[in-house]
Amino acid sequence: MADSHAQSIAEVAPIMWLMLGFFVFPMAAIVATVFTDSSRYRSIHFGLTVLYTVLNFCHLVADLVVQPIAWYQVVLMLILFIIGLLLNLVSFQWMKVRLVKRPPKNNLSHKEQETEFIQE
Questions:
Q1: Of 30, 79, 108, 110, which one's alpha carbon is 20 to 30 angstroms from that of 58?
Q2: pLDDT in tens, 65-115
Q3: Could you tell me how far CA 56 lies from the centroid of its own chain?
Q4: Beta bridge partners of 100
């Protein structure tokens, strides 16, 4: 019995590693969002949110096709899909915001310059 259980775990281990990566990658993106203001990163971030929304939608459809339907899983994927759509919207808005540095006033140092966000 223990031997067959060990074989089952070994068979699903690659899937578990992929699932770990699927969850760790967005967490790393969240951390990167805190530490960067790069316009290139904003574009990459938007692309990632769209990718994850598409993948969550595919997962939702797959959960509806599999029999028997696990409704708790369908509800979870529907919630994740809706959150993904909201993240797409916010990420798109964030991508369109430009960071503009104002020139120094009254001999202020470079560090004391004001920063202004302009939405395109």
A1: 30
A2: 999 999 999 999 999 999 999 999 999 998 888 765 555 566 555 555 555
A3: 11
A4: 116
Q: How many CB atoms lie within 10 A of CB 84?
A: 21
Torsion angle of C-alpha atoms 62, 67, 71, 72, degrees rounded to 10:
-80
Please list, in sequence order, all residues whose beta carbon lies within 8 angstroms of the beta carbon of residue 39, skipping any fewer than 6 positions away. 95, 98, 99
- Per the CB < 8 A criterion, the answer to whether 84 and 55 are in contact is no
Neighbours of 25 (CB within 10 A): 11
Q: Please count the other Cβ atoms lying within 10 Å of the Cβ belonging to residue 91.
A: 20
Report whether the peptide linkage leading into residue 26 is cis, meaning its omega lies within 30 degrees of zero: no
Measured CA distances, 87 to 41, 52, 78, 95 (Å): 15, 10, 14, 12
Query: pTM value?
Result: 0.70
User: Tokens at residue 34, please?
Assistant: 């805190």
Distance CA 106, CA 102 (A): 12
Contacts of 101 (CB under 8 A, 6+ apart): 113, 114, 115
Angle among Cα 52, 16, 46 to the nearest 5 degrees reads 15
